[in-house]
C-alpha cells in the first residue's frame, strides 16, 4: 500500500474552514505576535524515553475579519538539547497556517496545517501535521483577561520514514492579558502521537510547550473591557 | 385541433359585434362622403338612421358624436338652424371636447356651433395618460375643457382620503392644460396609490354646474434603499457596571483554565513518556488561577466601569453616525424618485 501525500487533504480542509463564512467581511484587524516557547520533546522508540528540550523563537501574523474569521501564518525555530546517551542535539523549525472560525462568541472552530522539521548534522525528519479542533474563549468580565481552552485531533500526520500514527491529538490551555492594542499571553500546549508497532517496537512521542506571547493589533479597535 | 376549434368558435362569436361596428362605420363614412358632395338630404337621412334608437347595430360614443356633429353641420347648411343647434348640442353634451375644424366648416356652421356651446354647459377631462414624471424637472398635465366660460375648480385627491390638492381654481373657457408637479401641498411627494382628478365647473352664462371625475394611479420608482443598522444588542455592548456575580464568574473561568491545563498535562499526555510537561501546565494553571482570584477580589464591590461606559457611548455614536449616513444616502435616493402615472378604471360625474 502506498502512502498518499497529505498536502491536498490538508489544503481542502483549510480551504473549507477558510471560505465557509467569509460573506460580509468588512472590519479587518491585523496583528503581529512574537513568541518564545520552552519546548519539551519526549520520544520512546522502544529503547526507553529520550527527552530533549530547548527554546523556540517564533513570529506570527494574523488577520481577523469582523471577529468571525481569523487567518494566521506563523514560523518558529530553535534548538533542542538532550542528555540522553547516544542521542544528538537537534534543530527544530516549523511553519504553519491556521484558520479560526467563530461559531458563537465564546467558541471557535480551528484548522491548521504545520510543516515541522527536526534536523541533526546528518539527517532531517520532516513532519506534516493537520489539525482540526475547537477553541473555547473565556472572556473575563471584570479584568481584561481571556482564558483559552483548546482541543483537537490531528487526522493527518505524515512523517518521513515512519508510518502514520494511529492516534494523535493536541490540547492547550492559556491565559491572555490585553491592554489596548497590546496583549500578552501564557499558554501550555501538548501534542501527542502514538505510532503503530511495525515490528521494531512501538513509537510514542509527545511535545509539550510553554509559550509566552506578545501581540500587537492594528485595525478595527478592540476595546479593553476595563 | 382543440385549439383550432376554440379559435374558430371565438372568431365566429366575435364576428357579429365587429360586423355591427363596421356597418355603423360604413354608413357614417357614406354619410360623410355625401356631406362632402353637398348631398345634404341623403347625408341627413343616413345620419338620422345611425342616431335613431331603432339602429340595430352597435355604435360607439365617438361614432354617435360624429353623427350628431355631421347632422348639425348638414342641417346648418340646409338652413335648419334650430335642428342644427339641437344636434350640435347633442354632440357637445356627449363629448365636451367636440369642436369644428375651422378649415373644413363654414363660418355659419362655426357660429352656430359656438352658439350651441354657449347654450350647453358641460365639463370634461381627458383620461389620464400614462407617464413617467421626474418631479424635479417635469410635470404631468391633465386636459380639461368647459363648453363655455365658467368658474372651474380642478382638484386631486387620494382615494384613501386626505387633503385635496387644488390644481386650478379660476375662470376658464374651452380647453386647458393643468400641470401637476407630483407634490402634495406640504411639498412632499405624492404617495403611491389611487388618485381622483375632480373637475367641477359652474357656468358663467347659465345657472348650471357640472362635474367629472377621472382616476389614475401613482407609483414610485425609487432606487433600492439601504437598511439602517439595528439597535445594539446587549451582547454588542460591554457591561457598564461591575457586579459581584461577574467576579464569581471570572473566578470560575480562571479556575477552568487552571484545571484545563492540569487535565491536559495528566489525562491527554502519554503517561509512559513522563509527566507531559506537568511543570509547564502548573505554570499556566497557576497564572490562570491567580487571574481568576484577582478578578474575584476586584469585583467585591459593585461599581461603574467608566471605560466600558465610554466605549459603549462610542459604539452607540458610531451606530448613530452610520445610520445618519444611511439616512442621508436614502434621502438622496428618494429625491431621485420617479412618479409612474397610469390611468385607472372608473369615471364619474
Question: What does this 3D model show about the protein?
Answer:
- The complex is a heterodimer of chains A (226) and B (349).
- Chain A is 6% helix and 66% strand.
- By secondary structure, chain A is mainly β.
- Chain A has one helix spanning 7-19; strands at residues 28-44, 49-65, 69-82, 90-104, 107-119, 124-139, 145-159, 167-179, 182-194, 204-219.
- Chain B is α+β, with helices and mostly antiparallel strands and 349 residues long.
- Helices cover 48% and strands 23% of the residues of chain B.
- Chain B contains 8 helices and 9 strands.
- In chain B, strands 1, 2, 3, 4, 5, 6 and 9 form a 7-stranded antiparallel β-sheet that branches. Chain B has a two-stranded antiparallel sheet with strand order 7-8.
- In chain B, β3 and β4 (165-180) form a beta hairpin.
- In chain B, α2 (40-51) runs antiparallel to α3 (61-77) and α3 packs across α5 (107-119).
- Classes of the chains: A mainly beta (226), B alpha+beta (349).
Weakly predicted, low-confidence segments of chain A:
13-26, 221-226
What kind of assembly state do the chains in view correspond to? heterodimer
Mean pLDDT reading of chain B: 87
Number of strands of chain B: 9
Most extensive chain contact? Answer: A-B, 42 and 43 residues
Structural class of chain A: mainly beta
Helix content class of chain A? under 10%
Low-pLDDT stretches of chain B are: 1-15
Measured distance between first and last alpha carbons of chain A: 59 Å
* Biggest pleated sheet of chain B: 7 strands, antiparallel
Number of helices of chain A: 1
Helical run tally of chain B: 8
Categorize the overall geometry of chain A: globular
What number is the mean pLDDT of chain A?
Answer: 85
Largest sheet of chain A: 10 strands, antiparallel, barrel
Amino acid at each position: 500500500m502506498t502512502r498518499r501525500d497529505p498536502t491536498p487533504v490538508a489544503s481542502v480542509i483549510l480551504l473549507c474552514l477558510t471560505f465557509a463564512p467569509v460573506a460580509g467581511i468588512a472590519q479587518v484587524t491585523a496583528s503581529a505576535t512574537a513568541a518564545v516557547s520552552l519546548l519539551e520533546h519526549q520520544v520512546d522508540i522502544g529503547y526507553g524515553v529520550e527527552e530533549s528540550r530547548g527554546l523556540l523563537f517564533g513570529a506570527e501574523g494574523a488577520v481577523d475579519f469582523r471577529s468571525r474569521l481569523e487567518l494566521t501564518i506563523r514560523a518558529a525555530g530553535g534548538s533542542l538539547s538532550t542528555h540522553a546517551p547516544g542521542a544528538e542535539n537537534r534543530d527544530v523549525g516549523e511553519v504553519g497556517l491556521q484558520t479560526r472560525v467563530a461559531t458563537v462568541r465564546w467558541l471557535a472552530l480551528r484548522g491548521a496545517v504545520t510543516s515541522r522539521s527536526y534536523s541533526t548534522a546528518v539527517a532531517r525528519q520532516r513532519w506534516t501535521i493537520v489539525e482540526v479542533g475547537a477553541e473555547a474563549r473565556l472572556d473575563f468580565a471584570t479584568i481584561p483577561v481571556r482564558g483559552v481552552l483548546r482541543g483537537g485531533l490531528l487526522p493527518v500526520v505524515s512523517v518521513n520514514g515512519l508510518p502514520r500514527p494511529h492516534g494523535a491529538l493536541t490540547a492547550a490551555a492559556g491565559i491572555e492579558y490585553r491592554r489596548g492594542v497590546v496583549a500578552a499571553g501564557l499558554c501550555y500546549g501538548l501534542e501527542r502521537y502514538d505510532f503503530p508497532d511495525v515490528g521494531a517496537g512501538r513509537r510514542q512521542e509527545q511535545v509539550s510547550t510553554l509559550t509566552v506571547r506578545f501581540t500587537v493589533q492594528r485595525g478595527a479597535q478592540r476595546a479593553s473591557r476595563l | 385541433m382543440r385549439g383550432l376549434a376554440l379559435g374558430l368558435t371565438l372568431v365566429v362569436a366575435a364576428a357579429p359585434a365587429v360586423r355591427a361596428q363596421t356597418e355603423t362605420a360604413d354608413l357614417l363614412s357614406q354619410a360623410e362622403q355625401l356631406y362632402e358632395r353637398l348631398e345634404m338630404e341623403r347625408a341627413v337621412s343616413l345620419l338620422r338612421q345611425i342616431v335613431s334608437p331603432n339602429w340595430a347595430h352597435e355604435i360607439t360614443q365617438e361614432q354617435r358624436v360624429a353623427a350628431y356633429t355631421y347632422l348639425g353641420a348638414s342641417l346648418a347648411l340646409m338652413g335648419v338652424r334650430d335642428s342644427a343647434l339641437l344636434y350640435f348640442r347633442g354632440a357637445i353634451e356627449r363629448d365636451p371636447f367636440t369642436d369644428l375644424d375651422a378649415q373644413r366648416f363654414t363660418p355659419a356652421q362655426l357660429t352656430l356651433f359656438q352658439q350651441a356651446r354657449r347654450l350647453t354647459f358641460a365639463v370634461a377631462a381627458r383620461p389620464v395618460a400614462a407617464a413617467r414624471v421626474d418631479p424635479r424637472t417635469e410635470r404631468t398635465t391633465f386636459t380639461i375643457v368647459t363648453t363655455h366660460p365658467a368658474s372651474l375648480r380642478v382638484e386631486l385627491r387620494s382615494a384613501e382620503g386626505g387633503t385635496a390638492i387644488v390644481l386650478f381654481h379660476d375662470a376658464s373657457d374651452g380647453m386647458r392644460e393643468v400641470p401637476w408637479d407630483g407634490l402634495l401641498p406640504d411639498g412632499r411627494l405624492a404617495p403611491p396609490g389611487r388618485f381622483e382628478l375632480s373637475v367641477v365647473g359652474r357656468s358663467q352664462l347659465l345657472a348650471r354646474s357640472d362635474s367629472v371625475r377621472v382616476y389614475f394611479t401613482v407609483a414610485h420608482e425609487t432606487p433600492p434603499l439601504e437598511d439602517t443598522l439595528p439597535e445594539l444588542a446587549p451582547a454588542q455592548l460591554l457591561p457598564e457596571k461591575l457586579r459581584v456575580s461577574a467576579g464569581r464568574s471570572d473566578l470560575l473561568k480562571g479556575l477552568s483554565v487552571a484545571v484545563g491545563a492540569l487535565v491536559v498535562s495528566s489525562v491527554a499526555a502519554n503517561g509512559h513518556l513522563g509527566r507531559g510537561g506537568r511543570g509547564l501546565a502548573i505554570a499556566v494553571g497557576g497564572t490562570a488561577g491567580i487571574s481568576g482570584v484577582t478578578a474575584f477580589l476586584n469585583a467585591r464591590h459593585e461599581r461603574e466601569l467608566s471605560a466600558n461606559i465610554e466605549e459603549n457611548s462610542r459604539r452607540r455614536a458610531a451606530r448613530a453616525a452610520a445610520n445618519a449616513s444611511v439616512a442621508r444616502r436614502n434621502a438622496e435616493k428618494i429625491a431621485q424618485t420617479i412618479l409612474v402615472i397610469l390611468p385607472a378604471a372608473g369615471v364619474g360625474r
